[in-house]
Amino acid sequence: MQDLSSQLWLRQRCDGDHVLVSGVVDEAHKIKFLLNSRPLELQEAERSDDESIFRYVEKEEWSRVLKTTAEAVKQKQARTVVIRSANLGAILDMNITFQPIFDGFGKVKEYAFVLHDLKPVEKSADSSIKLKIWMAKRDINASQLAAATGITPQTISKLRNGKIIRPHRLTAELIAAELRVDVSDIWTEVRN
Hints:
Elements: H1 5-16, E1 21-26, E2 31-35, H2 62-75, E3 79-84, E4 92-102, E5 108-120, H3 127-137, H4 142-149, H5 153-160, H6 169-179
């Protein structure tokens, strides 16, 4: 019989909150599975089966993750931490909640987690990264954005991949309106 405690906790979080990424890691912080992993598309490399969550966390932040999960175990409740990312194509602040899942003997079996928010650390972050983050926050993919704005999928792809840095004003305004943000939240400059 499979214990569904982690899936139940994740389902409750995903039903109530906007979640960018969710998943489960084992007691050694190795990723067992990921759900809603669209923001991780920011990275170029493929994910391996035996991958640690620390691959996505700046090395100087590892101790904060360990401290947060230890506090969650001690208090037997979810704990949230904001940490810096690694290997996501940009340095981002990640807001993550960890929930320890215990076995029948009070020992930690695994941790369920949800990533609530991503924010570029630098104001001058690449516009393609900002666009990907806002698309993930609004749970919209490139095809949906193209259909909603009337902008060609090729142009959306070029914007997401950084091949177009300064879009035309109308293009930027259509995208920003669909994502419910200001143009300046994504682009510092646009063309007239």
